[in-house]
Hints:
Elements: H1 19-22, H2 33-40, H3 43-57, H4 63-80, E1 87-92, E2 99-103, E3 107-111, E4 118-119, E5 124-125, E6 130-131, H5 132-141, E7 154-158, E8 163-169, H6 174-183, E9 189-195, H7 201-211, H8 216-226, H9 252-263, E10 271-274, E11 279-281, H10 286-295
Parallel strand pairs: 8-9
Antiparallel strand pairs: 1-2, 2-3, 3-4, 5-6, 7-9, 8-10, 10-11
Amino acid sequence: MNHFPPPSSPPAPTSLTTPSAQAPWVVGLSTPLTTWVSAAWPRAQLMRLISLLVLTCCCTLSPAQAQGQEAQIRKNLMERIPQFPKIEEVTRAPMSGLFEVRVEGDEIYYTDADASYLFQGSLIDTKTRRNLTEERVDKLTAVDFRGLPFKDSITLVHGNGKRQLAIFEDPNCGYCKRFEKDLQKIDNVTVHLFLYPVLGQDSIAKAKTIWCAKDRAKTWTDWMQKETLPNTSSASTASGAGSANNTACDTQALQRVVEFGKKHKINGTPTLITQDGTRVPGAINANQIERLLTEGKF
């Protein structure tokens, strides 16, 4: 399980990792464009792609033709790169002549109509200065806030609690503890805390102790801020039946939350989810949390 960068360094979207680290056959966009073009695309090949793009701008394909073209892209990629991940979707990208190839849920690649070229990186609209790739990934990873398993969460209310925020956290996550200090500075928000013990058996034991406590919210806060737990000695030995505080405690909620997180590819803690479904991985600071709640971005 990976952690995300500390508050001073907002995390990059997990799906937009360095291409070379994941797929050595893909040319990345981390180097200057001039270097990338000269190194990856010989002039003749580049001119061929430009010609293809110009030709595409002049033609409009019927739905049947477009479907056939998408099928051809799938076929060509799988034949030419057998180790390429299973393709889930091929769609037209916002740029004429470019196609988006989506694999493994939210990983985006781009190719031309013949799948002769393939790259991974950010597609930027220079007129609006929007990162179209980032927007697409945000849409793919969005979580329906109303569909969250709230019955398996711990509710903490700050002020009037008018605003809503869901957070997945591991009790042993260092970044989560930093994040919790900043979260205490935010007023008028209801926090739906989902215990997400994914860092080992000790995390599971502590999560059970917190979940089975008489006052879950206070127990969570005391642990994250003061590192104190009731009957601390039982934290390392709590079993599936519950902790020493309540032998009848049902801890199946913790497993349901973990299963929900895996289904929605929540790969690190903390992970925030806003009311509009926006997902933010990583420990952001108080100012960023406030902007996220008021503006929908940080």
